[in-house]
Structure formats: C-alpha cells, structure tokens
Specification:
The protein has a single domain, classed as Intergrase catalytic core (hpI Integrase, Chain A, Orthogonal Bundle). The chain has eight helices and three strands, in the order ααβββαααααα. The chain has a three-stranded antiparallel beta sheet with strand order 1-2-3, with helices on one face. Strand 1 and strand 2 form a beta hairpin.
Length: 174
C-alpha cells in the first residue's frame, strides 16, 4: 500500500475504492498504470502512475488471484472487507503501527504523519526528482490544482533542493 501510494499520487480515500476494473497496465516506451478511478474531490481525470506501481499491482493481482479476489469489481486493498469504511480504518491503523515501529510517527515539525503523507511524498518527490516536470502536468495527474501544489506540496522545498536543475542548460540544436 505504501509503495503503491508513493508511486501513484492517489488520495487515501481512493485506496478504499480502487477496484481491478480501474487499473490498466500500459507497456510501451514507458510502463505505467492508467488509473481510471471514481470521482474524488470533484476530479475525474485519469491518473498515470510511476513504473514501480506496476510491479506493486502485479504482486497484488497475483495474491488476489490466489485468494479468489481478482474479479473486475473486487477491491485492490482488503477486498475481503465488505464495509469500505472499515477497510479504510484497517489501512490507517496498520500504517500508524508501521510509523510507530519505525519511530516515524511524528515529522520534524511535530506534525503527525498519516496516510495522506504518502500522497504528499509522491507529489514532492516528483517536484524534486522529476526531470523538468511542470506544475500543471503534475497537478492534473494528481487530481489537484497548481495552487494546491504551490501552497501545500511545494511549500517545503527550497532552491538548493534543485540546484542541478537551476544550473542546467538546454542543449543547442544544430
């Protein structure tokens, strides 16, 4: 679940609703998942994941197949739990336990980390490590706005984090 979220930009509420029918593996010049999720916070755009999310999904699908939960309408996470609010609560509790065991429950500024922190990580990592990614593309893919990225996700960044990009030069053609 952690690896999936960090590589897919989904919101925690999306986790409880994702079904196999919402997933499409795309293999070509790039390998990724095309997520066609139900509406979330008034957003309906398709989400394109990073390549590691494909491996996570394939492992989840293999396990779901063994357990008999690989039908298109079966849920990706905790498909055996009919009540999706309960499934979400289980995911949340388990994530908190992992954070507690790792001593990472609280951030450097005293804030409690939650499942939503993984979405924050996904977006922030693209800002830091995505080669020349523009905010509009990232915002559309993450089903949010440029304003939200600037206000919440990019607020933790400073100029030295991308000094290489700031110092880079375009290659001359010709």
């Amino acid at each position: 679940m952690i690896a999936f979220m960090v590589n897919s930009f989904v919101r925690p509420t999306d986790l409880r609703n994702i079904q196999h029918q919402h997933m499409q593996i795309v293999r070509g010049r790039h390998t990724y998942l095309r997520l066609m999720l139900p509406e979330s916070k008034k957003h309906t755009e398709t989400i394109i994941t990073l390549k590691p999310a494909v491996r996570v999904y394939e492992a989840l699908l293999a396990h779901a197949t063994k357990m008999g939960y690989a039908a298109p309408t079966d849920y990706l996470f905790y498909p055996e739990v009919i009540n999706r609010k309960t499934a979400m609560m289980i995911m949340d509790v388990q994530f908190r336990r992992v954070l507690d065991a790792a001593g990472l429950r609280t951030g450097t500024r005293g804030q409690n980390r939650t499942l939503y922190s993984l979405r924050h990580t996904a977006i922030t990592f693209r800002l830091l490590y995505g080669q020349g990614i523009d905010l509009l593309t990232l915002a559309k893919n993450a089903r949010t706005s440029v304003e939200m990225i600037e206000r919440f996700y990019a607020s933790e960044l400073n100029a030295e984090m991308n000094v290489g990009m700031l110092q880079s030069r375009r290659q001359r053609v010709g």
